[in-house]
Fold these 2 entries.
Entry 1:
Amino acid sequence: MNVLGIEGTAWNLSISVVNENEVIVAVSDPYTPKEGGIHPREASQHHAEKMPSLLKAIFDRFPKENIDAVAFSQGPGLGPCLRVVGTAARLLSLKLKKPLIGVNHCLAHVEVGRWKTNAKNPVTLYVSGGNSQIIARRGNRYRVFGETLDIGIGNAIDKLARYFGLSHPGGPKIEKLAEDGQKYYPLPYVVKGMDFSFSGMVTAAQRLKGKARLEDIAFSFQETAFAMLTEVTERALAYLGYDEVLLVGGVGVNKRLQVMLRVMCEDRGAKLYTPPAELMGDNGAMIAYTGLLMLKHGYITPLEESFVKPNFRIEEVEIRW
Ligand code: ATP
Ligand code: FE2
């Protein structure tokens, strides 16, 4: 079975074809804002412009006739971007006369991670620009055990980076600067039950401008934010009695975050799983693979239910596998 998947909920327009065993082809065309953060309308225009050439690049390398279904990211994400992706997917499904499958973007991050690491029943720490959630399966649903009360950790890092004049995305730049950090400046550590918040931390870190080295600010920010995420992940592990942690989402490539989680896991006799970097951030293969799983278990999205869902939650999807 070969499934084509289109991802484009935010910055990355990415298309891929996968089968049960591997990613067969994958192409991406990321949108990078000229200045500031991601502008939804500009990002959607970017996706609309690049869609034809990306699809052509796929079909140059993989015959259209061999595609069994068309999967697309139905949400959550930026409305204008989701509409471009949804329209392209609907057209393609009609043209190829193959079923359409609307995929939850967060579920796709989790499933591609399980696929590529062989984690069985993990507590997943999903950390990206827009999202920060601790997810685990209970019965036939994934449940969110803890999440950010305001902005995602990636957006928090990007905001901090932007304030210091670094271009988008800020994550890799802050990580690099933090490597040379020497002094820790305390920042608000906000964990409320299983939830957490980052916006107060961003403001406090911004106030250090001119008073502290940028390397030390980046270092302090990462240490504080990642400790919060590690603490809540550990609490979910203890509560559920699971012994696997899966790290997914664009922020998951951060080496410091990986080290903190690994130390926590080792202390508890648990194992940390990290998918390959190219499958951690937004990518078409995760949508294609989750579409394939869904197709195998009888999910097809009728046209009239293929509308975009900007606030689509992972709990809404019944898991049949
Ligand atoms: P979602 O829709 O799931 O919220 P997203 O649109 O934010 O996804 P991702 O690719 O999952 O996209 O994540 C992008 C985020 O990852 C950006 O905020 C970026 O700064 C951050 N990021 C990338 N590399 C690193 C890094 N090395 N350290 C920390 N953050 C990083
Ligand atoms: Fe994502």
Note: The mean pLDDT is 97.
Entry 2:
Amino acid sequence: MANFTLPQLPYAYDALEPHIDARTMEIHYTKHHQAYTDGLNKALGSLGPEFQNMEVVDILKNIDTVPESARGAVNFHGGGYNNHTLFWNNMKKGGGGEPSGELADAIKKTFGSFADFKTKFQADSVGHQGSGWGWLAKDASGGVKFVTMPNQTSPWTKWKAEKLTPLLGLDVWEHAYYLKYQNKRADYVTAWWNVVNWDEVAKRFKA
Ligand code: MN3
């Protein structure tokens, strides 16, 4: 029986104030992330033993091998489980600024400049229709690209086609910002840049 548990939040609920408020963080982590965790265990519970002890990233990379009866649920809850783990670690108190080193070079190569990257990431994340995520991802060339993904579908599910590796994710579901920002998704994204943990993103790019 798959036994995924809610990964530890790397900071206190109020650590990212005023950009991400403590109440949103608490509900997002203890209710939403918990629900994806429970949903993943439940979905995997209906499958054979070969799926019970796999790492979630391996399951997502091989989503096409999950039996059709459970694929939609595993895609949704497994994506939600992994996306949120990455998201918490993508942020830190006193974050923001710009990356340096190889990651900065890769961003410049794809987008022209860090400012141009930020403009595209923000515009396309804000413009994403409905629930989903904006991602900076590493691709097969070893460079970076921007993608949006619907609902909780993980960039890892594009592994076989494009070798996509998620680096920096932004949750644009309303549950991520509505208590503080209501309908103003753009204000949430503008504030979010102040808590981005670029050291963590650079580490993932190098891995
Ligand atoms: Mn969320």
Note: The longest helix spans residues 22-45.
